[in-house]
Amino acid sequence: MSQDMYAGYFGLSRRPFTLVPDPDLLFWSPQHKRAFAVLEYGVMSRAPITLITGEVGAGKTTLLHALLGRMTSDLRVGLVANAQGDRGELLQWAMNALGMDLHEGESYVQMFRRLQDLLVADYAAGRRVVLIFDEAQNLSKAGLEELRMLTNINSNQDELVQLILVGQPDLRRMVTDTDMHQLAQRVAANFHLDALDRQSTVAFIVHRLKLAGGCGAEIDLTAAEMAHDITGGVPRLINQLCDLAMLYAWSDTEAVVGTSVMERVLDDGVFFGGGLMECEAG
């Protein structure tokens, strides 16, 4: 059975609410525009550390993919998706992300020296290095401090490596703890992504439907507003719920997703929704 089974029924070219981060489907809400502007500002202004935080499913990783798509050839970019471990392992994650070979039995000092040599060589060649750590809330405070030490590598007062730390709210709390003030002082650009409000949730749903070839009314306004109440405006949860609702409408041969379809999805317990809210719509 095709994964796009309901798309043709609604006259769509593809499923509009898939969960895979896709910058082509990114909904540029006002706060997502500001978050992206902060990311670009951090890169272009040579900020030592740029910090982007938000709840699970707020669109942080999708923003990162959009940023990667705009990186120019004068940048060497390394993306670490979910680094964990002690400082030696963290250094290996960084080296691997930058395309460096790892040598068995190499000491921490030797690895650090090779990384420093790469940064210096790139700087001499007019290339800047940007290291991005996604899901950085999984790092320990010792790991974050290790990353801060990387920003101390400089030449003629210029930063040789810039860090972009992206993660859940716990990351912001760690960075702002009193014992992390040295790290916090290196954060030159930061933004926190909140959930979408009701108006933006409706616009998000319409946006996704239109990008998939629809008219935007395949989910009616009342159902779209109900989706906000159910999901709390978290984009990933909106995608999950609307995907299931369109599947239900297709299976019941309904032309439009209305509130009754949303209610059936909830009644059947197929949408977990992170336990955010209970819908009171009738």
TrEMBL record:
SMART domains xref list: AAA
Top-level lineage group: Bacteria
Family matches, as Pfam families: AAA_22
SUPFAM superfamilies, sorted: P-loop containing nucleoside triphosphate hydrolases
GO molecular function, one term: ATP hydrolysis activity
Start and end residues of each AAA+ ATPase domain: 46-186
UniProt-recorded name of the protein: Type II secretory pathway predicted ATPase ExeA
Organism: Aliiruegeria haliotis
